[in-house]
Amino acid sequence: MAEGISVVKVSGHCLDDSDLIAQFAQIVVRSDEQLVIVHGGGVEISQLQRKLEIEPTYIDGLRITDADSLALVEMVLCGSVNKRLVRYLLAAGVDAQGLSGVDRGLVRARQMRHKSRDMAYTGEVVSVRGEVIADLLALGVTPVVAPVSMGEGSNFNLNADPVASAIAAAIGADEVVFISNVAGVMAGGRRLAKLTRKRALELISNGVIQGGMIPKVESALNVLSSGVPQAVITDLAGWAKRGGTTFIRSIAESSVREEQCQ
After folding, report:
1. Which of 58, 182, 184, 262 has CA atoms 20 to 30 A from the CA of 235?
2. What separation in angstroms does the CA of 28 have from each of 25, 62, 133?
3. 8 Å CB contact between 162 and 215
4. CB-CB contact of 180 with 238 (8 Å)
């Protein structure tokens, strides 16, 4: 694979606002890297569930996807959200193609294991066919991936973060960028520009990183564990300026100083 490949996971919070999607598309079209986009859409899934009087169910922050909810997830993620994002990208001049983990068997999945609950149709990654993405990138196409994936006898609903990580590892990407509504990891009122795994775990342990930031940081650290050189947590503005918080694997962590910026 060529150098300069980034897998970009964009949160559903950015995808139900036309202005934010348009901003995202403009950043994509100006990028000098090859991009693979993986998207969420949990907010819209929950909204549709409630309209149909299906109460969203979670355990440890994970959505439990029953059979009825799986049909809704496929409608929202593979349908409305994916095609909306592709439409905005095409309008901005990006040669984008939407697909899911099911298409060409891109992402194989199995039921997620949990010690106390049957996770039904909530899944986890088993494998990725990296050549599916490589074929599109070789044609100059930007893949836009919904994280619904293929299992034995059924599709599964997967969290977009591990799907992005697994795709990045399979294609030898240089980084995974997690785009949401937070500018990065904060400490003492300042954004941390760079973190090693060791330092990130220390900040979680001493309570500096807390609440909803913890799963974001854990997703970034999982990227490093998959063999991808770095991960970034940022928002749209930060991504446009190559900002945010970058997580790096360090051969000699003691030689890497934590950088801070306003």
Report:
1. 58
2. 5, 29, 17
3. no
4. no
**Residue 127 CB: number of other CB atoms within 10 A?**
14
Query: Is the distance from CB of 194 to CB of 155 less than 8 angstroms?
Result: no
Contacts 24+ apart (CB under 8 A), 255-258: 256/194, 256/196, 258/192, 258/194, 258/195, 258/196, 258/199
Alpha-carbon span 68 to 172, nearest angstrom? 36
Beta pairing, strands 62-63 & 58-59: antiparallel
Contact assessment for residue 181 and residue 234, using Cβ atoms and an 8 Å cutoff: no
Nearest-angstrom CA–CA distance, 234 and 246? 9
Question: String of b and e for 14-29 (b: at least 16 CB within 10 Å)?
Answer: bbeeeebbebbbbbbe
Residue 172, sorted as left (phi over 0), alpha (psi -120 to 50) or beta, turns out to be left
User: Rounded to an integer, what distance in angstroms lies between the CA atom of residue 166 and that of residue 143?
Assistant: 15
The 10s digit of each residue's pLDDT in 245-257 is 999 987 444 343 3
Cα(128)–Cα(136) distance, integer angstroms: 15
- Indicate the pairing of strand 245-248 with strand 260-261: unpaired
CA 208 to chain centre: 23
Q: Sheet of 107-111: strands edge to edge?
A: 123-128, 107-111, 148-151, 154-157
Structure tokens at 24: 């995202």
pTM for the full model? 0.92
- Helix/strand/coil for 24: helix
CA atoms of 83 and 77, how far apart (whole Å): 9
Site of tokens 């990130």 = 200
241 closest CA partner among 199, 195, 193, 209: 193
